[in-house]
Amino acid sequence: MKITPGKRKGLEAVSDQRGVIAAAAMDQRGSLRSAIAKERGIDKKAVTREMMAEFKEAVVRVLTPYASAILLDPEYGLSAAKQRAKNAGLLLAYEKSGYDNTRPGRLPDLLDHYSVRRLVAAGADCIKILLYYTPFDPREINETKHAWVERIGAECAAADVPFFLELVGYEEGVDEKGIEFARKKPECVIESMREFSKPEYGVDVLKVEVPVNMAFVKGARPCKGESVYTREEAKEHFRRAAGVARKPFIYLSAGVSNETFSDTLDLAAESGVNFSGVLCGRATWKDAIPVYAKRGIQALEDWLADQGVKNIKNVNGRLTAAKPWFTFYGAASAAALS
Length: 338
Description:
Number of strands: 8
Number of domains: 1
CATH topology: TIM Barrel
Number of helices: 12
CATH architecture: Alpha-Beta Barrel
CATH superfamily: Aldolase class I
Strand content: 5-15%
Structural class: alpha/beta
Largest sheet: 8 strands, parallel, barrel
Strand order of the largest sheet: 1-2-3-4-5-6-7-8
Helix content: 40-55%
Distance between the termini: 9 Å
C-alpha cells in the first residue's frame, strides 16, 4: 500500500510521534453560540463573532500543547489556528454548521466561500466533513449523500490533502440518545463504516461514533437503568464495526462527559479493536462554557489550565491501546508507505 506524499504529510502532521491521532475538536459553531447565549441569558444573535473567536482561541492556546492536532472551522477559528502549539497539526471543517431542515435526510452543505484549495491555503493539514448518515434512509437520500462525499473526496485528491469523514448516525423522529435508537445504533455505525470505506469516496480517515450508547451498557457507569447490551455484547459490537473498516478510524466524543468518554475508550481497549485515536471536543471543554459566559475570558483560561488539561490528559491516557494509522496498511512507519 502506498499513499501520495501530500496525504502522508498531512496525516503525519496531525498524529503524535507514535502515529496515533490525539486530536482536539473546536469546530462547533451554532451549538457553541447557543450554549454561550443560554448560559449568559441572552439571545444567541447577541453572541458576537469576537466572543466565538475568543473562546476558541483560549481553548487552542491552553489545550493544544497536549494534542497532536486541533480541528477548527474557518468561520471563527482561523485566529485561533495561529495560536496553536507547534506540535499540533490543523484540521479545518469544510461543511456548514447544522443541516438543511427544510427537506428530509439532514442533507449537508459546504461553506459558501471556501474550497479545499482555499482551506489548504489557510493552513489546513487535513480536511474534515461531517455527514449525518443512516443506512436505513431511503435510497434517493443516501445516493445524494454518496455523490456529495465522492465530490469532496475527488477535491481532496486533487489537492493531495487527507480527507477525514465524520459520520453521525440518526433516525428522523427518534431520540438519538434514547433506548430505541440505542438498539439500532450498532448496525447504523457498522453499515456506515462499511459504506464509506469504499475506495470511490476517497476517504483517508473515518471519524466515527462508537457503535453502542454507553448509557445502555449493563454495568457501565453511565447506565442508570434499563440496558440494551451486556458488556460482552458491547465489545462484540466494537469488534464488528472495526472488522468492516477498510480505512483507519478514530472515535469522536459525541458530546458525552469526559468520564463517559474515558469509559468508552476503556471498553474499546478491552475489545482489542485497531482504532487509531480520537478527535475529542466537548468531552474536554464543554463544562467551560458557563465559566466563560458568566465570568469571562480569564476565568475560562484558568478553568482550561486546570480541569481542561486534566480532561485531555485523561483521554490521552486511554490512547495507549490505539494503533498508529499507518499500521492499518500493514506498514511499520509512515515512511514505508511512500
